[in-house]
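Task: complex structure prediction.
Instruction: return structure tokens for all chains below.
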Amino acid sequence: MPQLNGGGGDDLGANDEMISFKDEGEQEEKISENVSAERDLDDLKSSLVNESENNSSSSDSEQAERRPQPRPDLDSYEKTRDYFSEALRRQQDGGFFKSPHYPGYPFLMIPDLTNPYLSNGALSPSARTSNKVPVVQHAHHVHPLTPLITYSNEHFSPGTPPSHLSPEILDPKTGIPRTPHPSELSPYYPLSPGAVGQIPHPLGWLVPQQGQHMYSIPPGGFRHPYPALAMNASMSSRFSPHMVPHHPHGLHQTGIPHPAIVSPAVKQEPNSHDNMSPSMHSKSPGLAKKEEDKKPHIKKPLNAFMLYMKEMRAKVVAECTLKESAAINQILGRRWHSLSREEQAKYYELARKERQLHSQLYPGWSARDNYGKRKKRKRDNKPDSTPEGKGLGSICHSIGHLFSI
DNA sequence: CATCCTTTGAAGAGT
DNA sequence: ACTCTTCAAAGGATG
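Output:
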């Protein structure tokens, strides 16, 4: 069941969030920073090489550090780097996680004044309805158009130990030790009804002054109206009117269309009038089908790893001078595992925001809507695809020469 | 030109 | 309840 009613229980929370890949070696910390790119990449390289023999990534606990400093020649990367990346970086620099009150769960929620979308919290008290959260209001760095979501700190209180601190489990696929995620995360996002209209997109696309978008925007932008913001009944009933700006053209309140919307001009035929939420279609088959074709393609919200990839890809590409996404993704996958819990937490958090916002924007949307939209790719289990062809071996080979170690 | 590759995670579908 | 499948991004490779 699609999340929608955050109200109920487990809204968008990923029950699987916060995976702990690095058991005990966690604290090896990054502050020491600059575990240089070479080190990092070297680790990656070696792990890639070793992967086939042992997935248990024990070595992962070693490298913990991700980011080498940006190289001067990364201007192109800098250029394309979106606001999201910047925000994340600032979080780190700003010590967002530096002093976790809650050791096991240093988690997010601690607003950072420098973070454009974690700060500025300020939902009016009235907007905060039942949902707890002492929201910190930050006067500065508050973009007028990006007020904040309220989060609950409750769950991060020392009184509620994160479940992921429990014994780890092995990922069946990778053999990498994992720890269950706190399922109680979900309720953290009690968006008060009135707050919905104020939801800032957690990511860059929403920040006009940056001119960067989290998602690639089709040429011509998202001019097409999309269902959710066209104010369907469910929204208007849930949101207080004054909080819900009307955007006749389907733009976000900032005037920036949500990136999840793919303009029909791009993916599907253009449409002229309103769209109902997918679940509202109950017309004759033929008609429904046509309507379906007309509907703009609403993409799935990005998950934590996708967000991470989006941010880091350019970096990896720059470092590796490698462009092949498959290879890049492998590297990123390894890096992802090498991230500390705190670092991953940031992305899980962003992903959750993303999902939440997505569900607010497209109340009727379901992942099912996109099923079959792509060509079925049937790669039967990849297990045997290792040695030959484009297996890990070739990947390693392809990136091997890039790491001069 | 369309699809594959490759990754993780979320969610729907199927058993 | 559990497992399997699909789709999110991305860009070179491939048929």
